[in-house]
Amino acid sequence: MTPTVAAVAQLPIELSAKDKHTILENVLEALRKRFYSPEKLNGDWLAAVDKHRPLIESAGSTDAFEQTVSDLLAELHTSHLGFFHRNARRASSRAALSATYLADDTDYGKRWIFQDVHSGGAAAIVGIEPGNILLRVDDRDIVPPEHPVFPMGQQTRVEFIDNHGRQQTLSVDVARPKGKKLHFIEPTLVQSRRIRDGLGYLKVAMFPGMVGVVVANEISKAVEQLGPVESLIIDLRGNTGGGIGALRVLSLLTPSQVPVGFALDRRRVTTNLDSEKQDFRRFSRIPSSTKTLWRLALKFAPTMMTKKPIVLQTEGLGKKPFHGKTVLLVNRHTASAAEMIVAFARENNLATIIGEKTAGRLLSATSVKVGNGFRLALPTGAYYTWKGTVLEGTPIEPDQTIEFDWQDRRLGADRQLDYAIESLRNNAAAKVGLNTPRQ
pTM for the full model? Predict the structure, then answer.
């Protein structure tokens, strides 16, 4: 998450000059105490604080105050960092619509073009498709670099050019009330199908939940429904991460229990990391039922209390026919826990990676109160692969780069998926040729 005012919704509060000064100081103090990379809080950052402070403390409205604080946080150039009020009622396209987009020149000028539209999400429900060109949200013209935001708990009018060149206006139900809380319409988490004999396709939209029991079970069920397949495409395009449920996909890549990686806060980073990590406790099994989560809590409570790192390790699900014949489809929106999968496959040579380079956003984060109902979301730890790679700020390059072609997508083509299918077909044919005795 990058600093943004996407959550602002005409906040009904007033702030005095003293309030603004105090909140800013609380933000700076929280960063000094908990920000994962303290070396970033010197030099240019201190100059940025001096530059932005007058604008922040003299902001004429609450919305302007939130915007100017977000502008300051943007100077840290890191993900999982944001500033918002507890009464915020707007969200990004990714969260509200289960959809992502990219900017490009179109016949309508510079516009946002939908790239990933997850089935079952709010955008997909009303018929928005990849390749659609966004024009307006609630009659407001949206032109990059401004990102659209969507009011929670309401219907939003979205105007766009569909893939037949027609201008459409649809009402999107962004979030549905449930009790006193608002919940986004969750997309279909897992989909699978046979593309042809011997080739399976598995798509995972996200990994909700801290432990991810539900999504892990759905992944296993989807793979079982595929039946025996000799090769597998795992589609992580548009998957912006989540929790430990990603371990189930990681475990599909290898038969054994293999260490994946761990998160370290700034106190734990040492020069002896290679030797110390051998003693970190390991998490290597997602339970099959949420009813047994209490056992996990008991098992890992002492480790969590001391804030010692926990190594994620694959579950050891046994040999699969598609091992060594797996493709990961990724794009610029593949992030966080989904990037853990891509990095693990790359380090252990377990899959071919096809698509666009990933987002390079993988940190552990939390949020803290900073006064007057405001909260600061900040990264508190960096994720390390088992071999020591830090992914934050370092997108993973695919083995074969196939860019998203939105104009082809408007015609119904999916070049990235087509390339993955052809790649597996060619590899299978090559192996058959190698194993055929010469006459």
Answer: 0.89
